[in-house]
Amino acid sequence: MSGVYARRLSVVAATAALAATSALFTAPSAQAAMPTPVSAATARTYLGQLTVGAEGSSSGYSRDKFPHWITQSGTCNTREVVLKRDGTNVQQNAACAAISGSWYSPYDGATWSAASDVDIDHMIPLAEAWRSGASSWTTTQRRSFANDLTRPQLIAVTDNVNQSKGDRDPAEWMPPRTAYKCTYVRAWVHVKHHYGLSVDQAEKSALQTALNGC
């Protein structure tokens, strides 16, 4: 074997090894890949099927009653799975922590390069769910709700925007980016309908108005 040929084989092998390593720790490019909510027409139908009543009490509520960020696979918990899913070119270390990448927040249109600037928002806040019927659920049901990767319930967004939302419903808070409001209310109704959660009258009116504009 010639020296040149041997060096070529060495380069090919090194390139293959690097690609394999990248495949382990680099997520496919994505951008806020929350599961797609139902259409506006379906959301309007769902909204009409939701129970309307006075919002329940927060008495007895604790985030600990909704076990969240549970292990999903290997060393990765729910938060880390969503960070990988919703980011672009996300690299994770052996502990599954995101060490690089970028995250676009559809709530406000900002892009972040540090995972520490990003929160994973529960579309239906845990406290809101508690007041809307989840207070009567089992711990298993609340765990499933708090870690739901199938419905449009979890999304990576700017941390301080998520904090400004708190546990408020759409009668009290909407994403500051107008272009996302239709997606937001479709997702809100989708999740509430799936879990059989109620709405109060002001919440329903705000959702109806927003959906009529979709």
TrEMBL record:
A molecular function GO annotation: endonuclease activity
The keyword Nucleotide-binding belongs to this UniProt entry's keyword annotation: no
Nuclease among keywords: yes
Pfam family, one: GmrSD_C
Signal peptide stretch: 1-32
Domain GmrSD restriction endonucleases C-terminal stretches: 97-207
Cross-referenced InterPro entries: GmrSD_C (IPR011089)
Alphabetically ordered keywords of this record: Endonuclease, Hydrolase, Nuclease, Signal
Protein's name in the database: HNH endonuclease family protein
